Amino acid sequence: MKSDKSNQYSSPVGAIFTGIGDLFKQSGDKLDLKDLPSLDGKRVLITGASSGLGLATALEMAKRGAEVIMAVRSGIPGKGEEVKRKSGSARVEMIRIDLTKLGALKEFVAEVREKFGLVDILVCNAAMVAKKGRVVKEGLDEMFVVNYFAKFLLAKELEKAELLNYKGPQLPRIIFVASESHRNPKAFEWEKFGTFEPYGIKQSVAMYGYYKLLLVTMANELSRRINHDGKVKASVFALCPGPVNSNIAREAPKLFHPLLKLVFGIFFRSPKKACGPVIYMAASKELEGTSGSYMFLMQKKEMDDKATDPGNGKHLWELSEKLEKQILN
Hints:
The protein is an alpha/beta fold. The protein is built from eleven helices and eight strands. The chain has helices at 12-25, 52-63, 78-87, 105-115, 142-160, 201-226, 257-267, 271-274, 276-283, 305-308, 310-328; strands at 43-47, 67-72, 92-96, 121-124, 173-177, 235-240, 294-296, 299-300.
């Protein structure tokens, strides 16, 4: 299936109107959360859980009985106390993580092991849209790091440290919060992988979509590598929650903040409603023993062909491991 989103996410304004249009095109949520099993006994690690979709996901997971670990850059301990109070659950913990600090990811995984132990469900949610290209310590683009590369490293480190709970009654699940904008790029730019090129606000949304393409491509390759012998050992899923009324556009020019607040408030989904597909993928019995599913809003959908192509996945993984060795070893 060829991309049907070409150029629709190439600018901030285009992305907003495309998101609104997608919501109106939907004929209603197709999958129901009412009959999902509880998450009692499950330990869930959620990145970017101090606001927006991540915070709403943490709250809903706690309400459903999960032990929730909120991995955040800020909001400690206030956001965790908020989730405890609203959910009525005391099984909520917080741990600090800054995805721009790539050298600290191993220490983060070691801290998870020491404080909490095995993880049943990993939700890689943290994301950002920058107003311009910025470099992190290693010389990489900050959006590339937060939206793709740190998630590659985190998933790999958790697997390497044997922190995914393969001994539980259900298979471990890894859920990547992606975007329909992954369909927008026409092709991979392999020769530029890991290199920084300056860009401004007009290009930032297009870059966001490109990094989401990398993310869903990696998710498919991760599934192939974990489940390499034909038997599903861990479920790897990806989803687009649709346009969410969150603070992801906080770096937009201040002149536009009142307008964005109005548009987001009227047309975009609340985080509480938007976290539905995350909850479904975490708890659904229907998905047990499967891997590779993608959801848009509450409907199953095929990913863009570029993301599911095994050749692209293999090449991306090799480039990512090469970059990892260059900057971390």
